[in-house]
Amino acid sequence: MTKLIAFGDSIFAGWDGKENVSANQRIPELIGQQLGWQVTNVAIGGTKYDDSSNGFTAMVNKTDVTGFDYALVSYGVNNFSWP
C-alpha cells in the first residue's frame, strides 16, 4: 500500500476556520481515502514553517520518514511570520 506522511499546521491538523473537524475529514486523510493510501498525519496546530523548537524543521527531524512513498507539506501564509 502507498504511504503518505503529512506535515503542516492547524489546517492539516483539522481546523476549518471555526472548529476542529474529525480525523477522517482532515485534508490529508481525505486525499488518502480518495487514492486508497495509508496516511500518517503529524500536523500540529500553531506550528510554523520555521526553525523554532516546534516548527517544520524540528517536526521533520523528530519524525521517522522511512517507508513513506510521499510527503505532503502545507503551511498557511500567516505561518511564515509575516504580519
Which structural class do you get from the secondary structure elements? alpha/beta
- Kindly give the count of domains: 1
Main sheet: strands, sense, barrel: 3 strands, parallel
Low-confidence stretches: none
Strand order of the largest sheet: 2-1-3
Computed over alpha carbons, the radius of gyration is: 13 Å
Report the average pLDDT across residues.
90
Strand fraction equals 15-25%
- What is the distance, rounded to the nearest whole angstrom, between the alpha carbons of the first and last residues? 42 Å
Order of helices and strands: EHHEHE
Give the overall shape: flat
Number of helices: 3
Share of residues in helices: 10-25%
Number of strands: 3
Mind explaining what this structure looks like?
The protein is an alpha/beta fold and 83 residues long. The chain has one domain. It has a three-stranded parallel beta sheet.
